[in-house]
Amino acid sequence: MAKYTILNSPAVPNMPWQDRPADLGDIPVWRYTENPIIGRNPVKNVARIFNSAVVPYEDGFIGVFRAERKDGIPFIYLGRSKDGIHWSFEEDRINFVDENGKTFMPLYAYDPRLVRIDDKYYIIWCQDAYGASIGMAVTTDFKTFTRLENPFLPFNRNAVMFPRKIHGNYMLLSRPSDSGHTPFGDIYVSESPDLVYWGKHRHVMGKAPEWWESVKIGAGAAPIETSEGWLLFYHGVTGTCNGFVYSIGGAILDIDEPSRVKYRCKTFLLTPENWYEERGFVPNVCFPCATIHDSATGRIAVYYGAADSYVALAFTTLDEIVDYIKENSVTREDDTELGRR
After folding, report:
1. What is the per-residue pLDDT across 122-160, written as a single tens digit (0 to 9) for each?
2. Do 303 and 27 meet the contact criterion of CB atoms below 8 Å apart?
3. Reduced to 3 states, what is the DSSP secondary structure of residue 71?
4. E strand or H helix that includes residue 109
5. 3-state percent breakdown (helix, strand, coil) of the chain, nearest 5
6. CA–CA gap between residue 11 and residue 296 (Å, rounded)
7. Residues of the chain with pLDDT under 70
């Protein structure tokens, strides 16, 4: 019998899955043996797809994908899949429009996330708005994508929405930054009644003494609501003589006050070890952006960008990942306090 449950989320019996290897040991997350699931030059004029997000849709899956085009400019492309592993992509980038239906494109867009709230799907991405900032759009049919007001001033990145309102407000994780390849960064949570006005900005957690997250951190996949709290997969960054290394970490946030961290795993869940994570356009990167999770079985599939060149898959179960995070948890005052000073 399962110890923990996934809340307010449907069963996804057709989700991608591969059983835990017998020789995995005490590691709670395992890679798909056929990684990467998306290779180089996947569609016309696109050199690489990575750091992308997917959700269940109709009888399969749909996703928004960071497509690094051959001219070097990233945009968001739409992809569809029957099994969550093999993907087909639209040849042209997503066309965003304003509230009057006129084309309203960002100068560039990258690292999208995707979340369903009620009957709408929200895309959040990184862009330029006179500095590094967050863009947002909404769709109900994946045919028309209406851009909303940018939630924050520059400089900010790594925005991730919660899949439901809390206390009647939309909730958004982000990482205030600078306009460069930020050498710092903590996760904050903000809330809004209408997706226009944002406030109550509260600190969630910051970088930690653990080597793998000692430079900066950033929210990854949309939080999963569970009986233990909000399960968050995030990325942690360390610096080496050969540049940054991005690993995947895990935490559990309070269900009603997500600025409070209940548990935070002191060890990484995945760090670059395989060729497609270590070798690529930006080496040594595991960057989580999405999960598919089945409330009936507790199975979780984690989609992550690998070396800024590929999309890869990893798997876990709710019981395994929650137990591992709790058993290896280290929290500090900055984590457990309300985050308001």
Report:
1. 999 999 999 999 999 999 999 999 999 999 999 999 999
2. no
3. coil
4. strand 109-117
5. 5, 45, 45
6. 5
7. none
